[in-house]
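Q: What changes when iron/sulfur cluster is included in the input?
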Amino acid sequence: MSLYYYSRGFFRWVRAKVLRSEVRIGGHCLLCGRCCHDLRIMDNGKWITSRKQHEQLVQNSPEYGRFNIIGRDGCGFLTYSCSCVSDEGVCTDYENRPLICSDYPSPTLYYRGVDPPAHCGYYYEALTFRAALRQLLGREQSFGKVLRQERKRMTKEERQA
Ligand code: SF4
Ligand code: SF4
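A: The predicted holo structure follows.
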């Protein structure tokens, strides 16, 4: 995996652990078919980078035979287009689509540093350090406010006693 994706994914994973907040997936599919025309495939946690790996994958899981190699990206991963996507961007074999399709976009991809393609209807929602700090400061402010009100109330009661 390229250093860029590896570092990005590692940062996301560490942040999620530190903040104890897992990524959530928002949005919905717009049926644009972009992710079916230009995809990368992972097998056992490793991106497919060679024809040999691809052949091995298809031998073990024949449903991957629908993916045609169309090239290689800048990170060295093989790029694929699916033979099951219609001209309208709709899956023609929806019931039998492989796990990478039914799971898309998965938290695993997020922690690998990958995002859905531009204009995809899905997005990842993750707590950032900045948002967590803002939440913490907000809680401290309201805690301070409650404390001040409580002090005022106790002083008033002491005066009345
Ligand atoms: S790119 Fe996103 S919106 Fe388009 S088909 Fe894939 S999952 Fe759906
Ligand atoms: S099997 Fe269906 S959902 Fe999966 S890439 Fe092909 S067309 Fe898209």
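Observations recorded in class: The beta strands are 24-27, 42-43, 46-47, 67-72, 78-82, 122-125.
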